[in-house]
């Protein structure tokens, strides 16, 4: 009897596979991408437990166990990296994360569709500008020599401020760049969620005398809540990923005390200083913490009665 049931299951799966064969064929490029560029490179994580030598390769390098992790955790760099990374992530969570939500709510209140589409197009544009251009624009505006902002300050107060060199201005500048570049593009997901709200709810609320503020508070925001929870879970999971390219372009010898984060540290130690095993250990730690945070945030959301990402 069990053999017969197993045979029926195999036949039903084969029939289902043949019926949807084109969907499986369309799945192949995406599957190959993840296999080649996501899973295959995990073999290189073994460097974190070796004294890796490019001449000996991964298979021939000496195994040293958790030596590099011990060196990393007991060194002075670890707490500096943790503080800088968490500060940037915390500020991003407080100031950048709500920005697309607020902007999408404002756009949703625009009734003139032509004007709304124009505004959406304009705020999407910065997303397609590379971080190199963003860093160049920032330098052009804020440099001490001939920056437009410092020229205005000098004309008003007779003083200039080294925005690009003083550590106190580094974090606000990074968060400001993120808000300017990504807020508009981030509204796409929330606007898509808003388009799925039943308009009869608004009609009923309007009949009951509710104004725009009450409708947004009692209809729009509760409808956005599942999407916000999912995006928050993903954001918490990337709390140690502060964006290598942006930070690397904005860091310099004057602000390195607050600008050095895990992403730039792994690059500088691994590729610049050729400490492959040590940087692999630091990168593996960051990835493990991110995975744990995603699982914990998803578990917390489910315990609170919300839908998680899985």
From TrEMBL:
GO cellular-component term (any): plasma membrane
Keyword Transcription regulation: no
Residues passing through the membrane, by range: 21-40, 86-107, 119-142, 215-236, 280-301
UniProt xrefs under Pfam families: BPD_transp_1
Protein location: Cell membrane
InterPro entries linked: MetI-like (IPR000515), MetI-like_sf (IPR035906)
Membrane topology: Multi-pass membrane protein
ABC transmembrane type-1 domain sequence ranges: 82-297
Keywords, alphabetical: Membrane, Transmembrane, Transmembrane helix, Transport
Predominant location: membrane
A biological-process GO annotation: transmembrane transport
Source organism superkingdom: Bacteria
Keyword Ribonucleoprotein: no
Gene3D superfamilies listed in its UniProt record: MetI-like
Sequence similarity: Belongs to the binding-protein-dependent transport system permease family.
UniProt protein name: Carbohydrate ABC transporter membrane protein 1, CUT1 family
């Amino acid at each position: 009897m069990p053999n017969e049931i197993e045979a029926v299951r195999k036949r039903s799966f084969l029939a289902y596979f043949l019926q949807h064969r084109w969907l499986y064929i369309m799945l192949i490029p995406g599957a190959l991408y993840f296999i080649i560029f996501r899973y295959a490179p995990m073999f290189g994580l073994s460097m974190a437990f070796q004294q890796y030598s490019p001449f000996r390769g991964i298979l021939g390098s000496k195994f040293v166990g958790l030596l590099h992790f011990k060196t990393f955790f007991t060194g002075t760099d670890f707490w500096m990296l943790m503080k800088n990374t968490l500060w940037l992530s915390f500020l991003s969570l407080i100031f950048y994360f709500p920005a697309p939500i607020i902007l999408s709510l404002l756009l949703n209140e625009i009734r003139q569709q032509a004007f709304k589409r124009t505004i959406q197009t304009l705020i999407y544009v910065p997303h397609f500008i590379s971080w190199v251009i963003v860093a160049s624009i920032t330098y052009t505006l804020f440099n001490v020599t001939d920056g437009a902002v410092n020229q205005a300050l000098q004309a008003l107060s007779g003083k200039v401020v080294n925005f690009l060199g003083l550590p106190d201005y580094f974090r606000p500048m990074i968060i400001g760049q993120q808000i300017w570049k990504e807020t508009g593009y981030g509204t796409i997901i929330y606007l898509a969620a808003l388009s799925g709200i039943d308009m009869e709810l608004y009609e009923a609320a309007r009949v009951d005398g509710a104004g725009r503020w009450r409708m947004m508070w009692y209809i729009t925001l509760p409808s956005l809540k599942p999407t916000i929870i999912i995006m928050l879970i993903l954001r918490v999971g990337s709390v140690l990923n502060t964006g290598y390219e942006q930070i690397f372009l904005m860091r310099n010898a004057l602000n390195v005390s607050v600008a050095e984060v895990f992403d730039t540290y792994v690059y500088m130690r691994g590729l610049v200083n050729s400490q492959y095993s040590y940087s692999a250990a630091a990168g593996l730690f960051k990835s493990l913490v991110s995975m744990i945070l995603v699982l914990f945030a998803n578990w917390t959301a489910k315990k609170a009665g919300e839908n998680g990402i899985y």
